[in-house]
Design a protein that fits this description.
5-stranded antiparallel sheet, 269 residues, alpha+beta, 35% helix, two-stranded antiparallel ribbon
Length: 269
């Protein structure tokens, strides 16, 4: 199987004597990487699926309450736009696992989006009563609290990995952004000096199926009924977060997900 990570950087090193920001080189590199993600899509997504299964089984053996969520990307996706992978030469990065050779959605991004959705639901006239803070189920207890007296939340979010390829069996998709008011890294405030400059880069293919795991930390005062209620509320917030989008460019429709399958297990099941 082709290592996309190694191929990407080998190509950059081979062209080090040339201008790696030349449009022809960048477009050819994107085409190569996307074609390889299609050619080896089954092997690559099988690797992601195995990792998710191992995470699920690990938490199960630790007697945690766990949920495995499969989610389909309804639009293109872009996570980790400032990450190092692909930032050179495209100036737009991508969260990418160098060992599995696949893009991923960081668990921290999922957690942050779900917490933001939880806050919105808590302040919503229709759902406010349902999501109000209680002793056993409240925002800080679920997601954690920062600061000197902070603590970790009881719900753990794993990274999400692709388990099935997207549209036309691609995992990675060619994309382009066209900044109008930036040149050489500096902002342009004069409309007459605006210079649209297309920047090709990588994104995640629409229709890619991802999977991730949520787990509730073990606690003596946490029974199966409490865990199910926590999952019910967190999953409702997750559904809202997915509709709003995760990652970069959500305001223009990127990163929209839909839950396709859910598996919940508790100690003793």
């Amino acid at each position: 199987m082709k290592n996309l990570f190694s191929h990407f950087y080998r190509k950059i090193i081979e062209e080090a004597s040339e201008d790696i920001k030349h449009e022809k080189f960048r477009r050819k590199l994107i085409e190569d990487i996307c074609d390889l993600s299609k050619k080896f899509s089954k092997e690559l997504t099988d690797g992601g699926s195995r990792v998710i299964d191992e995470i699920f089984n690990g938490y199960f053996y630790c007697k945690c309450h766990i949920a495995k969520i499969d989610m389909v990307l309804k639009s293109r996706g872009l996570t980790g736009a400032s990450s190092s992978f692909a930032y050179v030469p495209f100036e737009v990065g991508l969260s990418f696992d160098p060992f599995l050779c696949i893009p991923y959605v960081p668990g921290s991004s999922i957690k942050g989006a779900v917490r933001a959705a939880w806050k919105n639901l808590k302040n919503d006239e229709k759902f406010g009563e349902e999501f109000k803070d209680e002793d056993k189920i409240n925002e800080d207890k679920i997601f954690g609290k920062g600061g000197a007296n902070g603590f970790a939340g009881i719900v753990i979010f794993s990274d999400a990995f692709p388990i099935e390829p997207g549209k036309d069996d691609f995992i990675l998709y060619p994309d382009v952004i066209t900044p109008h008011y930036s040149k050489g890294g500096e902002d342009i405030f004069d409309e007459t000096k605006a210079s649209p400059t297309p920047i090709p880069h990588l994104s995640i293919a629409p229709e890619t199926l991802f999977s991730f795991v949520m787990a509730i930390r073990r606690s003596e005062d946490m029974d199966k009924k409490d865990a199910k209620e926590i999952f019910r509320k967190v999953l409702k917030a997750t559904s809202v977060a997915f509709k709003l989008g995760i990652g970069a460019r959500t305001s223009v429709g990127y990163g929209i997900f839909e839950i396709k399958k859910l598996k919940i297990a508790s100690p003793g099941d």
